[in-house]
Amino acid sequence: MKELSSIDLLEAAAYALVSERCRPSYLHDLRGGLQALQGAVELLVRAAKNPGNSAIAEKAAGLARSALLNHEKSLVELVDQITPRQESATAVNVGELLRDVLRFVRSDAAAKSITLRLQASKDLNVLAEAHTFRLLLLGLCMTLTDGLAASAVVDVKVTRSGRHALIELSSIVPCAPIPSPEKLWGAAGPRRRNCCCR
């Protein structure tokens, strides 16, 4: 058995954290694929009840096949996203990856009326392990939306910085005003302590 390194433990913890936090979103995506399949099956049933509708039946069968293929692809992608795996670094378009991550977190953000605005340079590629990179961006975006107040606006900017890609997430985060010393200590000012030092 391979000895686990601290990086392996951190990666496993990240997968567990993001998978648990994103469970409702993963289920939402799976249900969406099943709804397309259910609609195609219902159309097939209607066409079967009316024998003269061979064109509708053929269309429904095509829709059902397409929905099955899309759902299978979604299931494979889901397993890839929620389970750690060995992968080689490949060219990853950072803007496209962030667009996909923000689409995934959009319903969670919308529940808090948080607006996510992406501005990405075109064709900005980096060499990275795609699924691990996506996991880290997803965890970062989920943590950000969880910590923001309702109605916040987040600007997500992807630019080139020399040979590197720079991802900037910015939002005006309201913070409590810092009280003056008078307010901290009360109107009488700081209390004097008796000291018995010699």
Structure commentary:
- This protein has 198 residues and is α+β, with helices and mostly antiparallel strands.
- The protein is 57% helix and 15% strand.
Q: Which structural class do the helices and strands define? A: alpha+beta
Q: Going across the major beta sheet, what is the strand order?
A: 2-4-5
| N to C succession of SSEs | HHHEHEEHEEH
The low-confidence parts are none
* Helix percentage: 55-70%
* Multimeric state: single chain
Topology of helices and strands:
Elements: H1 6-21, H2 23-49, H3 54-82, E1 90-93, H4 94-111, E2 115-120, E3 125-128, H5 130-147, E4 153-161, E5 164-170, H6 181-185
Parallel strand pairs: 2-4
Antiparallel strand pairs: 1-3, 4-5
Task: Name the features.
two-stranded antiparallel sheet, 198 residues, three-stranded mixed beta sheet, 57% helix, 5 strands, alpha+beta, 6 helices
Concise account of the structure shown:
With 198 residues, the chain is of the alpha+beta class. It has six helices and five strands, in the order αααβαββαββα.
